[in-house]
Amino acid sequence: MTARTEAMERAYQEAKARGDLQPLHEVEAIKEWFYWKLVLNRFPHDKLNTKHLMIVLKREADLWNITNYEISELWREILPWLDDQYDYVKLNMKAMRSVANVPHLHVCTYKEEYR
Predict the structure, then answer these.
(1) Is 24 exposed, middle or buried (0-12, 13-18, 19+ CB in 10 A)?
(2) What is the C-alpha separation between 34 and 70, in angstroms, rounded?
(3) Which pTM was predicted?
């Protein structure tokens, strides 16, 4: 199951097969905080969304071992800042996580027909 259109999923799988996927924590930031950064999703979930960014931890880590400082910055600074600008934030659990070594959340705006 994918939230990407067929064309976007194909582009993602082809890039993956070519080894053309940049590690998330190395993707250029749109905005940065101390522990986290906001980046464009190169392969957005375009079936449902018009905008798709990601909040990415600036280091590799297991999702369940991020620090209290990292959690606090996310919860108290970043999510409130995003609250008026986007429709939802999504965290994929293990079964759906395509990038397991860099904690990240999807920040999206629904297409009009899903609002």
Answers:
(1) buried
(2) 9
(3) 0.90
